[in-house]
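Supplementary Note 3. Input sequence used for the single-chain structure prediction.
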Amino acid sequence: MELLTIGAFARAARLSPKALRLYDELGLLRPAEVDPFTGYRRYAPGQLEQARLVLWLRRLGMPLARIRLVLALEPARAAEEVARYWESVRAETEARRELAALLVDHLSGKATTMDTTTSTLRIRYAARTDAGLVRERNDDAAYAGAGLIAVADGMGPQGGGGSASAAAIEALKELELPAGELLNVLEDAAARIDGRVGAASELPDTGTTLTAMLWSEPQLALVHIGDSRAYLLRGGELFQITHDHTLVQSMVDDGRLTLAEAASHPQRTLLVRALTGSGDNRPDVSLHTARAGDRYLLCSDGLSSWVSDDALHTVLSTVAVPEQVVQQLVALANRAGGPDNIACAVADVVADPEEGAPRR
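The predicted structure, written as discrete structure tokens, is reproduced below.
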């Protein structure tokens, strides 16, 4: 079988030689032969199918590290992974579409979507924290109420982390949420929340992550910074709807690490963004439309780092009562060794059966 030069293979695969060299370096598409003296790459015609698959996945916008995962799977499992990725893209696009509609209505002088929608939804909720089995102090905080669910993972010496996480959530609890103004309120409050964190403890190296949802039915605003997470269970599928602000995650995004390598990386807990009181970092803010039957989970890395997504999915999809859900999730983290503090909050979106029904 005659091998193709990198130029000929690139033309046949509709990829550039530069892209092929990158995919070789990342282990996505190794050449069939590399000249030991010149380093010149040659490819087998049978590799064209894999090259075209990489091209199609890149056109979907899939990160290189996730493409490497897809290529390593059997076809049926690969198809499931592509479907999961595309569903997450659709969810993100839908949130951006809603924001665009709000902005168009606002700029054109029309009433916003949230001003004209009659709500028939409410949330049921629960939250729990636990010190875990190793650490003496609990620096995590969690809150669940009719208008807010939140988790924060504090960091810092001598109790400073606990003060920081509590201050971030208290600042959110004080926000007023006029209809149609969720995003504006959060944007205006971001600097104030960071300032409250800084004032809560003047110790060095003090800060907190924050992941929170503010509910103004039928919509919610998500505020997120750090490596605490938000998940959505919808239609039986579990999706992570936040992006970790960690050094290791940025390396995964760049294709320099696989997900498996990231899970055991010695710097996997190193944050690149958090609330520290310095004013240098602002949370991500996004708007989402809830549906009846949705279940949201917010948690610190004391849960997500030690309990698999499959285990999270099992509990979230089989346990009906939010209070029992958070109890079981904390128990799972502790059964995994409980090496870190644990915080989690769950909110179920349910149809309101009648006006004036209880909000819990």
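Confidence is low (pLDDT under 50) at residues 111-119, 355-360. The radius of gyration is 23 Å.
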